[in-house]
TrEMBL record:
InterPro entries: SelO. Pfam families: SelO (PF02696). ATP binds at residues 88, 90-91, 111, 123-124, 175, 182, 263. This is Protein nucleotidyltransferase YdiU. It comes from Spiribacter insolitus. Its cofactor is Mg(2+); Mn(2+). It is an enzyme of class 2 (transferase). The keyword Nucleotidyltransferase applies. Keywords: ATP-binding, Magnesium, Manganese, Metal-binding, Nucleotide-binding, Nucleotidyltransferase, Transferase. Nucleotidyltransferase involved in the post-translational modification of proteins. It can catalyze the addition of adenosine monophosphate (AMP) or uridine monophosphate (UMP) to a protein, resulting in modifications known as AMPylation and UMPylation. The active site is at 253 (proton acceptor). It catalyses: L-tyrosyl-[protein] + ATP = O-(5'-adenylyl)-L-tyrosyl-[protein] + diphosphate; L-tyrosyl-[protein] + UTP = O-(5'-uridylyl)-L-tyrosyl-[protein] + diphosphate; L-seryl-[protein] + UTP = O-(5'-uridylyl)-L-seryl-[protein] + diphosphate; L-seryl-[protein] + ATP = 3-O-(5'-adenylyl)-L-seryl-[protein] + diphosphate.
Amino acid sequence: MEIPTLENRYPAHLPADGFRRCEPVAAADPELLLWNRDLAAELGIDNESPDSQRTARLWTGTELPEGTVPIALAYAGHQFGQPVPQLGDGRAVVLGQLTDRSGRRHDLQLKGSGPTPFSRGGDGRAALGPVLREFVVSEAMHALGIPTTRALAATTTGETVHRQFGPEPGAVLTRVAASHLRFGSFEYYAHRGDTAGLRCQADTTIEWHFPALRAQPAPMRYLALLRAVMERTATLVNEWLRVGFIHGVMNTDNMTLSGETLDYGPCAFMDHFRPDRVYSSVDRHGRYAWNQQPRMAHWNLARLAECLLPLLDEDDNAAVDAAEAVLGEYPDRFAIGHDHMLARKLGLAATEDDPRCAGSTVSELGERLLALMARHEVDFTNTWRLLMQGPPDNREQVERLREWFDHDEGVEDWLADYAGRLRAQGIEETARIRRMTAANPAVIPRNHRVEMALEAARGGDLAPTRRLIDALQTPYQSPEGFPELALPPGPREIVPATFCGT
Ligand SMILES: Nc1ncnc2c1ncn2[C@@H]1O[C@H](COP(=O)(O)OP(=O)(O)OP(=O)(O)O)[C@@H](O)[C@H]1O
Ligand SMILES: [Mg+2]
C-alpha cells in the first residue's frame, strides 16, 4: 500500500494548547475488516493490496504513515445542555491530512487508537459494534448526498474492550473529515478566557472552510463566519430531516464547523414516523428528537455565538446585539430551506405561493402530509416512495394511499390538492418522478438491518455488513439484490433504542 506523505496542518494553525502530541498505542494483533476502496482512490492511496498485514498495522496506528504528526485535539462542549470546560479527543488522534483529487484537504483520524491526555479515565478504545456502525451509517450518509465525515477503514486490534453489554473486540475506525473543528473547539478557548486563542481558532476556521471570508476585515469577518456556519448548519439539519435521520447526540462537541455530520454514536434512521421519535438510550428527555433537531441546532449556534462575542465588538452590548441579529436570521433561513426540502420531496418546483392555484402552499401541503403520516405512524421512507407509484389523481393510486393511511378522511383532499398544485406548476408525471427519485431514498440504513449485520460481525461473519454497505451505495434506487432492505421492521424486529457503546 502506497500512501502519499501526510502533512499535519493543525500545529501550525492552532494555539499551542489546542492539541497534544500523542502516539497511538500499537495493537496486539491488527486485522483489517473493512476497506473503502473508492475513498482510498480519491485520496490517492494505492489500493493494490488492501488486505495485507501492513494495511492493518497502518490503520490501527501500529505503524504510522509517512509524514504523520499524531495529535489529540482539545475541545470543550455543552453536553445535554450542561457546559463541560474540557473534553478533547479521548480516544482518537489526527494523523495528518491528505489532499484529494479535486484539491480538497481531509483529516485522517484514528478513532479508538488508545488513551490520550484527554481520556479522563476512559480506556481510549472503541468497540467493534460502534466502529462498524459508524462505517456503515457515515458511508450511507455520503451516498445519500449529505455532508458527512467518511470511513476509510475498520480494523480490529486483537484486544478486548469491556462495555455496557460485556466484552467486545477492540476496533479502530479510520475517519476522513474536512476537519475536526467543532463548536466545542471554540468553547475550549472561551472557557479559558483566551481571546487570542479564539481569534486564532476563528481565523483557522475561515481559512480552511470559508476562504471567501478571508478578505473581510475584522470584526465583520467573524460575524460573517457566524452567519456562514449558521447557514451550513441549517442546511445540514434540513438534510437530516429529509431522510429521517436522528443524530442522537447533538451536543456542541459533536457539531462541526465544516457542516459535516460528525459522531455516529446512538444515531438512527426513523422507520415508523413520529415527529418526536428518539432512539438514543441516553436521550431520556427527547432533547434531540427528530423534530427537535432544528431548535437544538439553533441553541448550539447560540453557544458558538457566545464564544465569538469578544471578537465581534469591544463593547459587550454591541457584540451581543450583532450576534443576536445573526442568530435571529436562523428561523427564516431554516424555514426557507425546509420549504425547499419539502418541495423537492413532493416533486414540486418552488415554494412561493403560486397565485394560479387556490389550494394550499407547498409547505402547507408538506406539513399536512407529515401530519397524516404521524397520525398513522406509517413508514417515513416508504410513504414518499409510495407517492411515486402513480399520479395523485389516478384512481388506483388514490385507493392505495387510502389504504396506507387507514382510510383517513384527509387523504383524498390532500391528494386532490397535491394534484392541483402539480397542475398549477405545469409539472408532468415524468418530471415529478424524476425530482422525487432524487430526493426520496428507497433505502436507508434501517436500524434493525444495521443491528443484524453487526450481530453477525460480532460472531465473525462480515458478509452481512459488506452486503449492507454495498446496497446503501445507491440509495435512490430500489435494492434489486436486497429487497428486504426496503422493508420496515416487523413487530419483533423493531430496534427501539440505540447505544453509544463508548
Ligand atoms: N473509551 C473512551 N476513552 C476515552 N475517552 C472517551 C471514550 N469514549 C468517549 N470518550 C470521550 O468522551 C467524549 C464524548 O464522547 P462522544 O461519544 O461524544 O465522542 P466520540 O464518539 O468518542 O468521538 P467523536 O465525537 O470524535 O466522534 C469525547 O471527548 C470522547 O473522546
Ligand atoms: Mg463526540
